[in-house]
Amino acid sequence: MSDLQERIENIEKEFLERISSCENSSDLENIRIHYLSRNGILNSEILKNLSQLSKDDRPVIGGLANKLKKKLELLLKEKKDAFSSEIGSSKVDLDLTLPGRRSFIGKLHPLTLTMNRIKEIFVDMGFSIAEGPDIETEYYNFDSLNFPQNHPAKDMHDTFYLEDGKLLRTHTSPVQIRLMEKKKPPLRYIMPGKVYRCDSDVSHSLMFNQVEGLVIGENVNFSHLKYVLHEFARAIFHKDAEVRFRPSYFPFTEPSAEVDITCVICKGKGCRVCKNTGWIEILGAGMVDPNVFKSVGIDPEKYTGYAFGMGVERIAMLVYSIDDIRLFFENNLEFTKQFS
Ligand code: DAH
């Protein structure tokens, strides 16, 4: 018998003795490392030296060593299984006085909560939900919405332009166009989504969320818009919330309005948040401009419609009294876990 053959037999004997007296899984792991790891005995004393053996000896010793390796692995596994089935019995080192590990239950982000609530309110009023792409073309984001070629919103200071004339949408209004291209009136939709603008401070963030609304039918008029937005304000803020429409301008609506609600902090009395006016602006709205209908082939003599667009962060800040928009995006658990 060659020296190596004898060594293989001795390794096996030694291993069997050690494993039979092994009493816990950390000792078992030490045994595994000693015999079977990369620098363990089987590798360093036998397998690594195979190349130095004669052509005749190499397969014999190699075969024996591999057979032993398999046997040791099997014995280790059997022992390990035996230990794990004994957990709870006195044979295992188990310290029952150790404190348990607490598991934390996740919570929805305040923006998700606000978005869900907005959707729920409009769905209850009979609206459906549609979505569009974050990456848009100038046509959908501006031109089809009746923006003139030289409108300041098209400036690089406001819009993130991508390659090939693409851009990150600056508002959810392009989804109106995509919807009207696909579906015939009557339509009653909200369109939630992320939008992007080159602007960042306590009340602006490079990415934020909007919810767009669009209702088209044969006799849709401004009073329908007022009713729906008043119902929305009462549902999301306060049952006594009032809305106020101020004349404004958007290229895609005519007439256009900015819509205020009674200040949620002072209930209309005047405070720092509403700059003593008693009102807070929450969205833009108006009657769909006939030029927009023309760009999608809807007859403006037959149909009328209203549209609105609101910032979700702004609404969440009012609902939860948050004074810095950046808190939403810092992923600080101490902040995000406060909301339900
Ligand atoms: N798209 C506008 C913005 O991002 C918001 C807006 C105003 C949307 C009036 C509308 C609307 O649908 O009718 O500032």
Q: Would you give an account of this structure?
A:
The protein is an alpha+beta fold and 340 residues long. The protein folds into 2 domains: 2-87; 110-336, 2-Layer Sandwich (BirA Bifunctional Protein, domain 2). 38% of the residues lie in helices and 19% in strands. It is built from 11 helices and 9 strands. It has helices spanning 3-21, 25-36, 41-46, 57-85, 110-124, 138-141, 173-182, 222-236, 290-295, 312-320, 333-336; strands at residues 128-129, 135-137, 166-168, 187-196, 207-217, 243-250, 253-262, 279-288, 304-311. The strands form 2 sheets. Strands 1-4-5-9-8-7-6 form a 7-stranded mixed β-sheet, sandwiched between helices. A hairpin with a 2-residue loop joins β6 and β7. α5 packs across α10. It starts with a helix and ends with a helix. The mean pLDDT is 93. Bound molecules: 3,4-dihydroxyphenylalanine. 3,4-dihydroxyphenylalanine binds at residues 171, 173, 212, 250, 253, 284-286, 307-309.
